[in-house]
Task: inverse folding
């Protein structure tokens, strides 16, 4: 047996094994040639360790996954044009977001279904963010996780509440619990049609409980049928932004903006910030890649509120491109989950560290010593 195979069997790479999540949490990250050296390798490792239902749920996009692929490929037609002789002996990746200073402009995006990876996953990721001093964006109802983790700067994420009173009580509760901002996901009007989940007969109930282990029955059902026309927040309108703004003092940030006219409306309706996002290619298939949507949104906003972005980020150089096009910070969704699926909390911390280190080096090689000094003059679209 060669070294790599021996390593794999040692780690128990048996998809669906009842023990696999425990192994994820207990395995130290090898620092020798067998440890993952980038986010892509973390994904490969997580894929080997995770149940297929879980891997597909996380990795997958919607329908033909056009946007999922576009989110990655679009980085290929944006080219940095570096500056030289600028003294980059010291490079500072720190930045301030809505009054909170962070060591790097890399936030952890809200992702439902983390328990498909390991039990108690929201708390584990919150702890990793606390250790990495990264801002953690978490779903409504996951406040216990941030309390258990302690010392983490966090933003709450919601898909909205049906009425003004419910919105106000949510906002007050979140503010009282110490959230630094609220993000509102605005591209989740209906459950989307995800072929991988449909093919796997994925049951959304697993998102809370985790995937079934070997020997447990997978409930046979047809989610393709169930997912069609399953409403989440179809009645959400601009009024909602006003309700939240009226009910709390913390910033209200809209996540899922792609159209520049919506960016203008967001500012007019009092949004404190905008996240250019297409939900990681998981809502309407075929929509524009986020790195391509970003410049028009930044132009529409004209510096009135911060613009952030997410989608397809797997490298520090991707982040440099986003910052060059006007993003103040980025969010990463799948990348930390691949760390989580590989080595639990230590894996999340390693992924965040890797992306930060890659960003710092990319900035240095682009001739930029600080986040504020990065601008559109160092990027060009070709093709
Ligand atoms: C497994 C998974 C679950 C997600 N759940 C949510 C969610 O509950 N709310 C939300 O606004 N976005 C959700 N997203 C989208 C992310 O917040 C983020 O926009 C996206 O993952 C960014 O793309 P990336 O994964 O390529 O980094 C989810 C993404 C994934 C991969």
Result:
């Amino acid at each position: 047996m060669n070294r790599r195979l021996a390593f794999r069997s040692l780690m128990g790479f048996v998809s669906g094994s009842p023990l696999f999540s425990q192994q994820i949490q207990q395995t130290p990250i090898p620092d020798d040639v067998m440890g993952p050296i980038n986010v892509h390798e973390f994904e490969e490792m997580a894929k080997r360790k995770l149940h297929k239902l879980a891997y597909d749920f996380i990795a997958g996009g919607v329908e033909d996954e056009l946007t999922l692929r576009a989110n990655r490929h679009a980085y290929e037609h944006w080219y940095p044009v570096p500056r030289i002789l600028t003294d980059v002996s010291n490079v500072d990746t720190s930045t301030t977001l809505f009054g909170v200073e962070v060591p790097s402009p890399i936030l952890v995006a809200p992702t439902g279904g983390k328990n498909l990876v390991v039990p108690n996953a929201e708390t584990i990721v919150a702890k990793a963010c606390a250790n990495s001093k990264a801002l953690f964006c978490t779903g409504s109802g996951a406040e216990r996780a941030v309390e258990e983790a302690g010392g983490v700067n966090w933003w709450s994420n919601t898909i909205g509440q049906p009425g003004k009173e419910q919105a106000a009580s949510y906002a007050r509760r979140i503010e009282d619990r110490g959230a630094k901002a609220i993000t509102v996901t605005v591209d989740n009007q209906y459950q989307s049609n995800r072929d991988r989940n449909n093919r796997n007969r994925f049951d959304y109930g697993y998102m809370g409980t985790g995937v079934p282990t070997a020997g447990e029955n997978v409930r046979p059902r047809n989610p393709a049928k169930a997912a069609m026309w399953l409403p989440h927040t179809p009645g959400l309108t601009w009024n909602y932004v006003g309700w939240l703004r009226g009910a709390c003092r913390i910033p209200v940030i809209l996540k899922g903006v792609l159209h520049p006219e919506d960016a203008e409306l967001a500012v007019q309706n009092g949004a404190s910030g905008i996240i250019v996002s297409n939900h990681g290619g998981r809502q309407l298939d075929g929509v524009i890649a986020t790195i391509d949507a970003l410049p028009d949104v930044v132009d529409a906003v004209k510096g009135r509120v911060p613009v952030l972005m997410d989608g397809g980020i797997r490298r520090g150089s991707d982040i440099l491109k986003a910052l060059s096009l006007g993003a103040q910070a980025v969010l990463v969704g799948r990348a930390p989950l691949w760390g989580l699926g590989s080595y639990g909390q230590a894996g999340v911390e390693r992924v965040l560290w890797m992306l930060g280190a890659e960003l710092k080096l990319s900035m240095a090689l682009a001739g930029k010593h600080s986040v504020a000094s990065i601008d559109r003059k160092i990027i060009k679209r070709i093709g």
User: Anything to note?
Assistant: The first helix runs from residue 3 to 11.
